[in-house]
């Protein structure tokens, strides 16, 4: 009988979560670097360069890759001959590890979990509780697989009960475009096939814990039906031309992972869950000899890629900017923003909506007239940081507030992924713009933020309204004042280019 102390268990969970907050798995880095090398769309190539540079910076600085440090999922395989020396439940043990990781003073992680999800949605402040799946297995060790899943990708999860003779490849190919770019492609697609509705979803989530090995599979060729399916889906998805950040390009999926299990004869449950550009997961085993140990970070694992601004990139001063000036911005153009911007996410928008409904004034310091709003929930700063990692959240969630914000005089919005057609139309009417920052480059973006202060709704934590002073913050014009949207034109163009390349 192996005995594992509660301290070893808890500390291993905490250390593992800290590690994956700032260090990508080596296989993911290699896959992203290969995609960057092959990419032909300059905008997509630039986005992947930012992701890779951000990844290396985060590892060096031991600060989060992404501001959304995720909700924790924990898969436990507990040996029946293993004893944990504790009076705590498994949930309490894991949650204590999560709590220590997310409140670590040297690298605080963003608390994103809210209790009472259908009601007050109050932040738990320490990112607990974790989601746990426990299996009793033969043996005297505990195998632990941890993931920290961001909402941008989690919210894009899909499920369908297909007919037994339906094509899974066709369903995935039709479904992926409906997911938009909020999952920060290129990433990994996880599929769960079979079982029941709930089992298929768990299989899809668990499949994302596997190593990235698509290139190896392509080189040697598939050896069973699941591997054949992985290759078919991989090729079909990349033929869609969605590309990095939805800008259009050759690579949308770095890999496709599949787990399956037997199902009812009348059913074909299929779950699809994407992993984002943060791709945080780790595996370790506790055998009673102490806490888990992890390999040192090797900076040589990252490619020698630099993200540099070309001379053609336009620097703009946002303070007192005119609508005549922003009317000259072109879709797909790269800008470097300077000046002050306000931030706001779902909760802040809801609160503003409530104040306006009551006829109440907005808080002092909250004036959107002629301003740009950045959809972000930053990580708390440490040391001399003005702010912690501060990448964009998915803009589509804020579409329902577009008219309200434009009526307040807002001139532009900054976020990630596409906007809905109603928002695009509203931007066109108001002669406003939508700018896209790269999801998965949060630490890199934060270096452009020189000053930060909370101006309203401090009780909302990371969802408070901040005022940022930025210097050369990189963005792409995603919707211009004429309503031209790169998330519509880019994938369409590159889907055709990919067809042309294959027809040669």
UniProtKB/TrEMBL annotation:
<dbReference type="GO" id="GO:0006091">
    <property type="term" value="P:generation of precursor metabolites and energy"/>
</dbReference>
<feature type="domain" description="Fe-S hydro-lyase tartrate dehydratase beta-type catalytic">
    <location>
        <begin position="288"/>
        <end position="489"/>
    </location>
</feature>
<dbReference type="GO" id="GO:0051539">
    <property type="term" value="F:4 iron, 4 sulfur cluster binding"/>
</dbReference>
<dbReference type="Pfam" id="PF05681">
    <property type="entry name" value="Fumerase"/>
</dbReference>
<dbReference type="InterPro" id="IPR004647">
    <property type="entry name" value="Fe-S_hydro-lyase_TtdB-typ_cat"/>
</dbReference>
<comment type="subunit">
    <text>Homodimer.</text>
</comment>
<dbReference type="GO" id="GO:0004333">
    <property type="term" value="F:fumarate hydratase activity"/>
</dbReference>
<feature type="domain" description="Fe-S hydro-lyase tartrate dehydratase alpha-type catalytic">
    <location>
        <begin position="11"/>
        <end position="284"/>
    </location>
</feature>
<dbReference type="GO" id="GO:0046872">
    <property type="term" value="F:metal ion binding"/>
</dbReference>
<keyword id="KW-0004">4Fe-4S</keyword>
<keyword id="KW-0479">Metal-binding</keyword>
<keyword id="KW-0408">Iron</keyword>
<keyword id="KW-0411">Iron-sulfur</keyword>
<comment type="similarity">
    <text>Belongs to the class-I fumarase family.</text>
</comment>
<keyword id="KW-0456">Lyase</keyword>
<dbReference type="InterPro" id="IPR036660">
    <property type="entry name" value="Fe-S_hydroAse_TtdB_cat_sf"/>
</dbReference>
<protein>
    <recommendedName>
        <fullName>Fumarate hydratase class I</fullName>
        <ecNumber>4.2.1.2</ecNumber>
    </recommendedName>
</protein>
<comment type="function">
    <text>Catalyzes the reversible hydration of fumarate to (S)-malate.</text>
</comment>
<dbReference type="InterPro" id="IPR004646">
    <property type="entry name" value="Fe-S_hydro-lyase_TtdA-typ_cat"/>
</dbReference>
<dbReference type="InterPro" id="IPR011167">
    <property type="entry name" value="Fe_dep_fumarate_hydratase"/>
</dbReference>
<dbReference type="Pfam" id="PF05683">
    <property type="entry name" value="Fumerase_C"/>
</dbReference>
